[in-house]
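Sequence and structure are no longer studied apart. To make this concrete, we show below a single chain and its fold as tokens.
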Amino acid sequence: MTTTQRFQGQDLLRVGHDDHYLLLAPAHGGRLVRWVHRGHDILYWPDDADWTRVAKVRGGNPLLFPFIGRHFVEGEAGRWRDGAGEVHDLPQHGFARDLPFAVSELSEDTVSLSLTSSDLTRPGYPFAFVFTATYRLVPHELDVSLHVRNTGEVALPPMPCYAGHHFYFALPHQARGQSRIVMPPAVRVRQQADGSLTAPEPGEPAYRVDDPRLQDTFHVLQATPGDAGAARLELPARTIEIALDAPDAVPWYAVTTWTERDDSDFYCVEPWLGLPNAIHHGHGLRWLPGGTEETATCRLVIR
């Protein structure tokens, strides 16, 4: 069922059933705040979350659009240069997590939240678009799609974009040594201080979560499109599989692993469509001509 639930002083949208449900905050970046499965929180959300600055809260699933991570112009972060040479200001991870979304679809087990271009988005990103995140609950599973549509004229230059997720999975920091991440074939890359990328290093099939090679690392997928496989976060209490090979969807480019501190009770495993600063180096950069659209989908399965 769908309803509104009071949580931390906020009226959040609730989708699902008694023991399997979502809480979402459309007005706060379309943020998925909680995913509860059999009474357990799969995602981390802090008890002292600052709802005046939700974009900065470490928790849930912030939506990253139109660009992911940090982008640079002449060493200055938060800026990007278009094909005509004009420089635009755009915050890290884009603006989606800062802006209100509209509820565009709602049913017993599915919700779609949409962000449409406006006077708030055009200064940093001069394109017409609709960006939609759809969450669908099925038993032991959460299917998530990111849909981008360029609503501009066909004759205009194509729209650059690369979107992604920022899943904060609940994991007590003391349990990192007893947990691991299993990866599909990938190479490891990081971003350097000037926005460039390190040379690729061979990836491992599995890592303990406390392995320092995981920190702030992009695992660039090497499988052929449509055969990307899955990343798995194996925790003491459960395994969360992130399937990346949905049919009829655009391919994920990388999976990013990150946490904030040694004592943070979360670990992030994030499917991304491109790498930070792709607008300049091109790794994962996508172009949508006017009137076209595309969808990227991942399935989060509890085992």
Q: What stands out?
A: The radius of gyration is 18 Å.
